[in-house]
Amino acid sequence: SPAPPLSREGHFTVNFTVTNLLYTSALQNPNSKKFIATKKTLTYLVSVSQVPLVAMFLLVLLFIHCDLTGFLSWQLDQDRDDTGVDAICSYRDEPSDRNFSRVTVYHELSNMTNGINKLGHYNLNSQSLYING
């Protein structure tokens, strides 16, 4: 009999903009205290936010983790620079009839961030969430 198909690991990117975190040069330096603290906090919030997806996709999708890869200056307003956030998330795609859907992830993250407005104590630009699978 043929061997059962193996699950495979996949990745997708998540991008969003935080409007109450002023972008500064410290966020360019991966060794700065501000970079390290902000990365730790946002990584935790992004990971916690996705926990319900594990239950929803129990047989389809198992999240492993999200890793923030960096911050960038995002100017939505001429008076200040907001902080763009880039993350790479990993998941395990289990063999089944359903495949990873970035549309589903987008809708779930939208629901869990109050319409792409809040992530913990951070305010989000509601037009900034982008999922690329």
Automatic annotation (TrEMBL):
It comes from Pandion haliaetus. InterPro entries: MUC16 (IPR028850), SEA_dom (IPR000082), SEA_dom_sf (IPR036364). This is MUC16 protein. It holds the Pfam family SEA. The keyword Cytoplasm does not apply. The chain crosses the membrane at residues 42-64. The gene is Muc16_0. Coiled coil: none annotated. Residues 8-133 form the SEA domain. Keywords: Membrane, Transmembrane, Transmembrane helix.
